[in-house]
Amino acid sequence: MCVPGCQETVRLALSRRGFFEGVIAAGCGAAVASSTAQAAPLVGGREVVDLTHTMSADFPTFFGVPGIEMDKKFDFHKDGFNLYWWRIIEHAGTHLDAPIHFSENAMSAEAIPVSTLVTPLAVLDVSSKAAQNPDYLVSPDDLAAWEKEHGRMPENCCVAMHSGWARHVVEPAKFTGKDSSGVLHFPGFSLEAADWLMKERSVAGLAVDTLSLDHGPSKEFKVHYHWLPSGRWGLENVANLDKVPRSGATLVVGLAKVKGATGGPARLIALV
What we know:
single chain, alpha/beta, Glucose Oxidase, domain 1, seven-stranded mixed β-barrel, two-stranded antiparallel sheet, 13 strands, about 25% helix, disordered N terminus
């Protein structure tokens, strides 16, 4: 049923849409590309890019069990509303590692200062190197190359590894890279790169588009044990790093404020 005046409003909207569609159809390819760019979500004039994979029971994990299980306890048709109980692994899907994840006395998730969760984003594109070597380690040379092109890393930034691995998430075997002997294969940060960032730059967090800050074959998790106890955080299973610039974006980390949590699923948003 349409309230008074609604039909006129609909006709007006349709006529406007037809006008703009006609303009786009008559325009050149550049005009179409411009229109597509303008259609992206904007906040304060900046494009919004979702860096988060959809969490589901099918998402690849280290643990051999689903990262999330959802038990529907209330149904709309029966109870008048919908509600699930979740059973969830803190470190599955796109998630944050809090400092306490690899330390006895460091910060848990709720204690992470919000000032570090809205941060400049520096993206290291090592996708061509990772394509040649699935066990690739981000090196100090990669950091130096980024600064040569973009200048000194911003204060309180997040340094993200774009290895191209996110595209494999629909193929769990490829994403984990598990071989016949059970060894995983995917890129990560080297201890030398993490150490340089800790000593030489002011960095709030590391981010990777793989399962772990440490590369797949790691057995000692040296980057985790070095980076997290220092009071810094890490992001794993980040999506869409190929859709943000190497420099200039702002990362917003949406993290549940759960007391004592060692991390948790995160909704990551980049403002470009």
